[in-house]
Amino acid sequence: MAAKVFTIDGQQITATEGQTVLDAAQDAGIAIPTLCHLDGVMDVGACRLCLVEIAGLNKLVPACVTKVTDGMVVTTNSERLQRYRRMIVELLFTERNHICAVCVSNGHCELQSLAMTLGMDHVRYDYTFPKCAVDPTHRLFGIDHNRCVLCGRCVRVCWYIEGAGTKNFSGRGTQSRIVSDLNAPWGNSRTCTSCGKCVQACPTGALFSKGAAVAEMEKDRGKLEYIVTAREKKQWIV
User: Fold this and answer.
1) What is the rounded average pLDDT for all residues in the chain?
2) Given this model, what pLDDT does residue 226 score?
């Protein structure tokens, strides 16, 4: 497999054939913010937080779906990128009703952590205050659409790791929602296996385990990584 040599933030590193800029950067210990990326699950470039600059291109490109090429020169942390990322995070806060102080994932939320990392101490845009429901019908889990950022991680985990195909998107634009089956209450789903992988994949408090109080909902990504790795290496015991 041919190696690719390229530069990130002035540091020359090597990537494997077909590797994305995000994966290569992570292997080199270079952090690029993202919400929709989840190790072991296909990338879709939804959140746009991993945008990077590539020399010779006028546009910004998402690192999670951009393949490395020989001689590529990448910038991951410029004033322009910081401005874009902060704008994206602010818009995510205005699009739904994120009240961190009463959220089950307070202190364990990727969106909250990104806001702090980017120095977001206020939001410059008008809040939309949409009327979003909470679906507590599942016997083990619940979904609070007020906290959803539509990253699609739960959908991809449900389809490509669990293979149930329960979760999906419904609606367009500000009316987009994560639904179960054909927009049935989650508790009435005939396809859900109650595995909880979608809950573990969620970066915010949108998907939660019942019984978790404020700041108690910690996600364990290691469980998902173990499943993906075991399948790829055929480690299952038959």
Assistant:
1) 93
2) 72
CA-to-CA distance for 228 and 238, rounded, in angstroms? 17
Fold adopted by 99-232 = Alpha-Beta Plaits (3.30.70)
Interatomic CA distance for residues 74 and 72, integer angstroms: 6
Q: Are 191 and 98 in contact (CB under 8 A)?
A: no
Q: Using one digit for the tens of pLDDT, what is the confidence trace for 134-160?
A: 999 999 999 999 999 999 999 999 999
Helices (H), 68-152: 79-95, 110-117
CATH code: domain 3-77 is: 3.10.20.740
Residue 206, SS3 per DSSP: coil
3-state SS record for 40-76 = CCCCCCCCCCCEEEECCCCCCEECCCCECCCCCEEEC
- 3-77 and 99-232 in the same fold: no
Place of tokens 């590539």: 54
Q: How far apart are the C-alpha atoms of 149 and 203, rounded to whole Å?
A: 9
